[in-house]
Design a protein that fits this description.
The chain contains 7 helices and no strands. The chain is mostly helical and about 190 residues long. About 15% of the residues are buried.
């Protein structure tokens, strides 16, 4: 009788395996994730700027730049945003990314030039306050200022403040001669 019990046990185990295999549902694959397009990301970034959330806009522009690496528009918007925020170093870096994609972009060149001047002005002012603007640094600064004046066609980069108007002195009224009223301007010289 031990033999039929073994067969019975084996039959139960086989039936259990069969039933357990039938109860397992197939695993469904999740739907593929569709990445947002450049236009969608740029539109969301514009909405973020409009609501005042510049940090979210920057994150969306960075995502757009990663999604479309050859497109300059996300970099242009980042450069302009950083410039407007006074983050001149970052503005220069973003503008350089624009120039990698479009070397003739005037806005990027402008952002680099103006941001660079603002950073330079700030650094020179700090050095002047610390009395450390001397030697070769002073000479190079003067050379760069001369180059800038020549590029702009100006003799003075920062004009001096306006002087207060000079009061006209009060003269004694002169006696008018009879000839002053005539049409000949040389009569007064006689």
């Amino acid at each position: 009788m031990t033999r039929p019990v073994s067969l019975r046990t084996l039959a139960v185990i086989a039936c259990a395996f069969t039933l357990s295999a039938c109860s397992t549902a197939p695993v469904a694959k999740p739907p593929p994730v569709v990445a947002p397009t450049l236009e969608e990301l740029m539109a969301k970034a514009t909405q973020a700027v409009d609501t005042g959330n510049k940090a979210a806009a920057l994150a969306l522009w960075q995502e757009a730049a990663a999604a479309a690496p050859a497109d300059k528009q996300p970099w242009v918007r980042m450069a302009q945003s950083r410039y407007d925020a006074g983050q001149y170093g970052e503005a220069i870096l973003n503008a350089q990314e624009v120039l990698v994609r479009d070397p003739a972009d005037k806005l990027a060149n402008s952002v680099i030039a103006i941001s660079g001047l603002r950073l330079s002005t700030r650094a020179l002012a700090d050095l002047s306050r610390q009395n450390n603007l001397s030697g070769p640094l002073r000479a190079e600064s003067q050379d760069l200022a001369k180059l800038l004046r020549e590029s702009l066609g100006e003799t003075v980069l920062v004009p001096p403040p306006d002087k207060p108007p000079v009061r006209a002195s009060r003269k004694q009224p002169s006696k008018r001669t009879a000839d002053e009223g005539s049409a000949n301007p040389f009569n007064a010289l006689k």
